[in-house]
Write a structure and sequence with these properties.
With about 375 residues, this protein is α+β, with helices and mostly antiparallel strands. Helices cover about 20% and strands about 20% of the residues. The chain has seven helices and 16 strands. A seven-stranded mixed β-sheet has the order 7-16-12-8-11-10-9, with helices on one face. Helix 2 packs parallel to helix 5. The protein is globular, with a radius of gyration of 25 Å. The protein starts with 19 loop residues before the first helix and ends in a 12-residue tail after the last strand. About 0% of the residues have low confidence.
Length: about 375
């Protein structure tokens, strides 16, 4: 578990299975240096930034921008006018809407006393660095999943939205948001500002719920195939639904005569994995998703701006970028050495029609809490 505070000499405690006399034969002669730890953190942070863009979940779900605003078409469409020789048609222009994206500052602080740094082995520092990286990974996941589960708006200066800016979720009734949204008409179907993409249903997962999520995306012009993100706690229920086709491992030998759903890539080391398909929907167990909640969307490709979630990054950046900051390195008298992993990012919604969330344990909607 994470232990708050600087790593100091009090942490020189051997696990019971280690022999001090034997270990001393292999002890580092000069201890771990500030430079070594700094470089280790730089490399690890670079890898994590790449993970935010290349992970199979994030690249299918998000896109990045540094602009604080998102703008988009809204409202009903119309028809072309009949041409007349002397007449003039009536000019028309699209109705537009828009909202802001949050931006927050996050850090993971590391610290060692000078005395501890002088004596410790590099592996101890690497454990601390791995913890810092994991803290950042957890925060990114928590922020992204929470936006999928929250019907209401984000607001406030602390989230980088000023005093009157709002960052709403997906389409929802006007009573649930300060950014009223009438989805654009599609295929002759028009919508109102009471259109709802956050739906509650008691009784657990059913095929009817998945079919309804598909229909809700399709009516806005998002064609299959769809992705459904669920909790691992719901895996047994969903895979047991009539008509669900379970995933075959990549090593599976085809030709058995049974229907199998083929994965698109290897399962991720963090537990994100494809478990099978129902009709037009590929279903994924997703770390951070709480039980009884699910989110369905259409992915338009890696980091496509048509993907549902929009991540705002630091001004001048095109993707999440970490800074590694150090303190105490130039003054040998200072008793502590500090490293800090720092990033600026915020998670909002890009396309308010390309996402629909279900809560299947109650007939009344309640926001989920990302894990």
């Amino acid at each position: 578990m994470a232990i708050k505070g600087y790593r100091d000499l009090s942490s020189v405690i051997l696990p019971p299975a280690q022999d001090l006399a034997a270990l001393r034969k292999f002890q580092l002669a000069d201890g771990a240096s500030q430079e070594q730890l700094f470089n280790e953190l730089v490399v690890a942070a670079s890898g994590l930034a790449g993970e935010f863009a290349r992970h199979p979940l994030w690249r299918s779900l998000v896109s990045f921008q540094d602009d604080p605003a998102v703008n988009y078409a809204a409202g009903a469409s119309s028809y072309a006018d009949a041409f007349t020789e002397y007449g003039r048609g009536t000019p028309q222009h699209a109705e537009r809407s828009g909202h802001m994206l949050p931006l927050r500052k996050w850090d993971a602080q590391l610290g060692w006393t000078w005395a501890k740094l002088k004596e410790m082995g590099l592996s101890e520092g690497q454990d601390d660095i791995n913890l810092a990286i994991d803290r950042m990974r957890n925060r990114y996941r928590q922020q992204a999943i929470q936006r999928l589960l929250q019907r209401g708006d984000d607001s406030g200066a602390v989230k980088g939205l000023g005093t009157s800016g709002y960052s709403p979720g997906f389409a929802t009734t006007a009573a649930s948001t300060n950014v009223d949204f009438t989805p654009p008409a599609f295929g002759g179907t028009t919508f109102t500002d009471t259109h709802e993409h956050y739906v509650a249903a008691a009784g657990g997962w059913t095929t009817a719920i998945i079919e309804d999520m598909e229909a809700e995306l399709m009516e806005h012009g998002h064609a299959p195939t769809y992705r459904l993100l669920i909790s691992g706690a719901d895996e047994g229920t969903v895979t047991g639904l009539t008509g669900f086709v379970k995933a075959a491992p990549l090593a599976y030998q085809l030709g058995s005569g049974s229907a199998v759903a083929q994965p698109e890539e290897e399962d991720s080391a963090d537990g994100f994995r494809f478990i099978g398909s129902y009709q037009n929907t590929r279903v994924y167990v997703t770390p951070g998703m709480p039980q009884y909640y699910g989110f369905s969307y259409r992915s338009y490709g890696a980091l496509s701006p048509r993907n549902p979630v929009r991540v705002r990054v630091e001004k001048g950046q095109s993707a999440p970028a970490f800074r590694v900051l150090s303190g105490g390195a130039d003054d040998e008298i200072k008793s502590v050495r500090d490293l800090m992993l720092y990033i600026e990012l915020g998670v909002g919604v890009g396309d308010r029609t390309n996402g629909t969330t279900r809560y299947v344990n109650n007939a009344t909607w309640a926001d989920g809490v990302a894990l």
